[in-house]
Design a protein that fits this description.
Layout (H helix, E strand, L loop, with lengths): L24 E3 L15 E7 L2 E9 L6 E5 L2 H7 L3 E6 L6 E6 L6 H5 L6 E7 H16 L6 E7 L8 H13 L7 E6 L1 H13 L5 E6 L2 H7 L4 E6 L2 E8 L4 E5 L8 H18 L1 H15 L3 H21 L14 H11 L6 H18 L5 H13 L12 H8 L5 E2 L2 E2 L1 E4 L6 E4 L4 H11 L3
Parallel strand pairs: 6-13, 7-8, 7-9, 9-10, 10-13
Antiparallel strand pairs: 1-17, 2-3, 4-5, 5-6, 11-12, 14-15, 16-17
Helix pairs in contact: 6-7, 6-9, 7-8, 7-9, 7-11, 8-9, 10-11, 10-13, 11-12, 11-14
The protein binds nicotinamide-adenine-dinucleotide and zinc ion.
The site of nicotinamide-adenine-dinucleotide (NAD) has 29 residues, from helix 3, helix 5, helix 6 and helix 7.
Length: 448
């Protein structure tokens, strides 16, 4: 059994700052600091609407939550000194661990301790099932004859992330007479994680749920934080729920079978964390991008861990996206327009986000909020990660505008965007920007 993880350090600390001249929610994140107490964070949030402060708090007392610890136990040592890490997502009674490491699917006790009840439904797709389903069933049942495992295998692809295909999960669960004490297990990338999570949130009004993410995208982002859902033909992820898993199990060995294009797609979200809140991590990526692309195991493990720490901390501070969490959507408003406008699955999520990040950065520069060295660095790192730096040629200004108008971040008709502002690692989530800059950006990136 793994040694209990102890908080060794508070690796990252979110710093929110106010700027009274800014009628927006502003996040300043100058330099990581170590906090004296895990219960005190010198964060200040100020939300202003139409110049009137609607909510403000001077030093917020909030628990800083993302802690991680090396976990080494005898069984792991015996396996060949494979170390694993646990990042805790601290959400009170809904807290859970993210296990990160090589060979974790060979450690049945990690999964089994989070299975509630005797029935398990593994939700996966045809691609992933062929490689990992047997291994996961073995991990769920080894030494544990009490548990019976069913599986439902969905077609593979973003275009199947919809209500019709979701129904297949409910069909299987109901036909198998699963009850409230069952556990759903998501085995696959972000599409499977989002669908299985949403199914778990709504089947019998909520059953236990475990994430086993198998893509970089899902290991660094989508499996953590409890956002679940499906697409509508008019917009991405418009139907869904916040629903947290019991645990996330990241076996980094699963990345060995991931296609190169999918690996690069996930790196878009890794780059995002650096840009919005972790300049040091961005600098590390600038040096280590060749290693990440070459799948160096220790570089990948570090990038996954640090991304999970960033995500866990943001989610712990703002689970239901009242402000801070929205910053994780840097590039996504433009990116979702590409995914929806160009056709689900044509461009991978991370590819669309990469082009979206470039557009958000371009707009931030036009507004005079960042200097051109940041624009160049973002261009360089995305190119190095083999990600696109312009949207598809067929995207028009009108296509962007019509899809962006139904984005979830539109509030009272105001299109709020995540933009970079200040030194590297700082961003704002705001509807208070010059519309001309948005128009100029759209025209700069679209032929029509
Ligand atoms: N919930 C969130 O917070 C959140 C965050 C980011 C992205 N997302 C969502 O995640 C989705 C994208 O996720 P994704 O990039 O993982 O795409 P995906 O789930 O479509 O997986 C990518 C491809 O890789 C295959 N695959 C998965 N694991 C594999 C493995 N180990 N070996 C070989 N092939 C493997 C899949 O079958 C698929 O073909 C989008 O729908 C996006 O909206 C959600
Ligand atoms: Zn994303």
């Amino acid at each position: 059994m793994a040694a209990t993880s102890a908080a060794l350090s508070l690796p990252l600390s979110s710093k929110l700052g106010t700027n009274s001249s800014d009628s927006s929610l502003r996040f300043l994140n100058p330099k990581p600091i170590l906090l004296r107490s895990p219960f005190f964070s010198p964060n200040v949030v100020e939300i202003k609407r139409n110049g009137i402060s609607v909510s403000s708090a001077s030093p917020v007392r909030s628990r800083i939550c993302a802690t991680s610890a090396q976990v080494m136990d005898q069984s792991v040592a015996a396996l060949g000194s494979k170390a694993s890490t646990v990042v805790d997502v601290d959400l009170g009674t809904r807290s859970y661990p993210i296990y990160i490491g090589s060979g974790l699917l060979d450690r049945p006790e990690l999964l089994q301790r989070h299975v509630h009840g005797k029935r398990v439904l593994v939700v996966t797709n045809n691609t992933v099932a062929a490689i990992y389903l047997d291994k996961v069933v073995e991990a769920l049942t080894k030494g544990n004859t009490n548990v019976s495992v069913e599986s439902v295998i969905l077609p593979d692809g973003e275009k199947y992330k919809n209500m019709d295909i979701l129904m297949k999960v409910f069909d299987k669960a109901i036909e198998s007479r699963l009850d409230r004490k069952c556990t759903f297990v998501a085995l696959g990338g972000g599409v499977i994680g989002d669908m299985c999570g949403y199914a778990a949130a709504s089947f019998l009004r909520g059953v236990n749920f475990i994430q086993i993410p198998t893509t970089v995208m899902s290991q660094v982002d989508s499996s953590v934080g409890g956002k679940t859902g499906i697409n509508h033909r008019l917009g991405k992820n418009l139907i869904g729920a916040f629903y947290q898993p019991q645990c996330v199990l990241i076996d980094t060995d699963t990345l060995n079978t991931l296609p190169d294009r999918e690996l690069a797609s996930g790196l878009a979200e890794v780059i995002k964390y650096g840009l919005i809140r972790d300049a040091e991590f961005f600098e590390w990526q600038e040096k280590n991008m060749p290693a990440l692309i070459a799948r160096d195991p220790s570089a990948l493990a570090y990038a996954i861990k640090r991304s999970c720490e960033n995500k866990a901390e943001v989610v712990s501070l703002d689970e239901r996206e009242s402000g801070l969490r929205a910053t994780l959507n840097l590039g996504h408003t433009f990116g979702h327009a590409i995914e929806t406008g160009f056709g689900y699955g044509q461009w991978l999520h991370g590819e669309a986000v990469a082009a979206g990040i470039i557009m958000a950065v371009d707009m931030s520069y036009r507004l005079g909020w960042i200097d051109d060295s940041i624009v160049k660095r973002v261009n360089n790192i995305l190119k190095e990660a083999k990600l696109p730096v312009v949207p598809p040629e067929t995207m028009t200004v009108e296509m962007f505008k019509s899809v962006m108008a139904v984005d979830k971040k539109v509030a009272d008709g105001l299109m709020r965007l995540i933009l970079l502002k200040g030194p590297l690692g700082n961003c704002v989530f705001t509807g208070d920007y010059d519309r001309k800059a948005l128009d100029e950006t759209l025209h700069a990136f679209c032929k029509f």
